[in-house]
Amino acid sequence: MSGSSAERAAAAERVLLVVGGTEEVAAVAGWAAKRAARHPMAVTLVGMPDGGRTDGAERASDLLHQQMPSIPVAVRLPHGPVRAALTTAAADQDLVVLGASRTVPLTRVLPSLLAIRLAESLRRPVVLVPRSAGDDDGPVLVGVAGDGSDDDALRFAGAEAVAAARPLRLVHVGRRAVPPRGALARTGDEEDAPSDPARSLDAAAGAIRRSRPALGVSTALLRGEPGAAVVRAGADASLVVVGSRRSSVEDRVPVRSVGRALVEHPPCPIAVVPPARRA
């Protein structure tokens, strides 16, 4: 391998694509091909059984080669329980991508929060790609909890927005009505929310603008049930990014409801980003 080829291989993002049914193969392969057009990528495909068919990975590989012939693709066959097989396959990957069609056995077998659990246990982002992949021209939307758990999600969302040449939208959801900005600090928001969500949003947006001055960044304060509010907000997005942390899946109802709502009713591709491993 030449020096330049070795450098490209070393710089390539390692992506695990998990596919099952016919509906999701095209969506996942198409999403990966668009991503590969933006930067070098090496793909590992895992095909989950679908009604007796086990050729999902091979079909996805054929589609990828048709759209992006230069993508290196390896195919693995899963062994054992679904979650254990995916954990093993994802051990050396940078990003995990799951098909999110609800009409095939893959997502009937996987719990609706598997993406969050995988992201947290693997400490790497997991993306769910629905059959209808959303508006490619829409913004990247990222949820801001304001409690420090979403710092890595914000960095991931900013990088994705820049790579895709899309604006970035930061949103915070509160269950209570959103009062005027000057009154936010005095409203006694719910226990897990920041005391001043507007200030938290402004601080997060300001940090991104300083690090990525060419990126268009906007913010929005929403109200209502968190899961439904984020699904509605993501209707015109090209990607929705949410953060997670180990304790959140088991004991934080807002995070659990957002994760389930997004997985069961994905308005577009959903990225679940856990806190990164620290040296």
From TrEMBL:
Q: Would you say which domain of life the source belongs to?
A: Bacteria
Coiled-coil segments on the chain, per record: none
**Domain UspA: residue ranges:** 139-274
CDD domains with a match to the protein in the record: USP-like
Family recorded in the similarity comment: Belongs to the universal stress protein A family.
The protein in question is named: Nucleotide-binding universal stress UspA family protein
Q: Which organism is it from?
A: Amnibacterium kyonggiense
